[in-house]
Give the backbone structure.
Amino acid sequence: MSDYQLTAIGHIHSPYKQKFAIPRQPRLVPQAKAKLVFTADFNREEFVRGLDEFSHIWLLFRFHETADKGYSAMVRPPRLGGNERKGVFATRATFRPNAIGMSAVKLEGIEYKNGQLSLLLAGIDLLDGTPILDIKPYLPYSDAMLDASAGFADTRPETDMSVEFSQASLDFIAKQHSYPELQDFISNVLKQDPRPAYKKQQDGEQSYGMTLYDFNIRWQVNDDHNYVSSIEKN
């Protein structure tokens, strides 16, 4: 058989409402909290019995927003500044033949509330609404290969970017109580420098906006400095 049908077992409720600003790998922003809500067919505690014994899990998911755009044999990894092509199977690019992705994330808890089964997750890099195809426990003795090499992505991406908040932004953060880690969350997202590769090569101040949770964040970038000018509720 060459064709297979896959069924989503759940969907992600994520602070990332758009692809822009999502970290390019999981666990780069520990404050990125999410909830995996199971679909009706899998909304039973039996499916996750024993999962709470594991600190981390693998999520297999579908790149649902780009799946209909097809795939490319060669892609331009952002890690290489978007200037060099690599084979898609040598990258974690979204434009894949089956549009399947995988992320190792922290499992912070299992919730069964008002008849709904959910997993509480942290360090996620998934768009809101992402369909989850499967879950597997992370096994450190098998999955963590400390002597492995990783080609052009051999080290954790780090930036020297600083982040400053306007007084109005700090006042907004102080008044909201739903997300106690909101300032650290925004800071760590911006430190990953979510700008497209070609924008990073441009001089002068640049202005951007993004949606995290239900907040609209505006900021400016000047060289290696981020200035968060405003935060508003959508």
